[in-house]
Design goal:
The chain has 128 residues and is an alpha/beta fold. The chain contains five helices and five strands, in the order E-H-E-H-E-H-E-H-E-H. The protein has one domain: Response regulator (Rossmann fold, 3-Layer(aba) Sandwich).
Length: 128
């Protein structure tokens, strides 16, 4: 049975690109286009891993990650944060320190390199 990965990002093009990368590695992909929807889908779909954007308008990825890690049912799901914070550091309220406080299992800078994304996902699954 294929591992199920939830991709949460408010950029539909990025969601599609990441989904294609993951599907090419034979993962089942579930998508959400914002933090609120991502939390809802996590609760209903119970993915094996979450790829989570940081900068989203409805609920940011840091907040979503903190809520997931505080939930006794969902806290074991690995979270890979995707962030463009470095390239927007002067125009955003987000910081790397905030990311370090979320208990995310890993994080990657955007733009996402397909080979690196696949390696990070495989590494997170191998830890389980």
């Amino acid at each position: 049975m294929a591992k199920r990965i939830l991709v949460v990002d408010d950029d539909p093009d990025l969601v599609e690109a990441i989904s294609m990368i993951l599907k090419s590695k034979h993962y089942e992909v579930i998508v959400a286009y914002g933090g609120v929807e991502g939390l809802e889908k996590t609760k209903t779909e119970k993915p094996d891993l979450i790829v989570l954007d940081v900068m989203m308008p409805d609920k940011d990825g840091y907040t979503v990650c903190k809520e997931l890690k505080a939930d006794p049912v969902l806290c074991e799901i690995p979270v890979l944060l995707l962030t463009a914070v470095v390239s927007h550091i002067s125009t955003t309220r987000f910081s790397h320190q905030m990311g370090m406080e979320t208990e995310a299992d890993d994080y990657m800078d955007k733009p996402v390199e397909p080979v690196e994304l696949a390696k990070r996902v495989e590494a997170l699954f191998s830890r389980q």
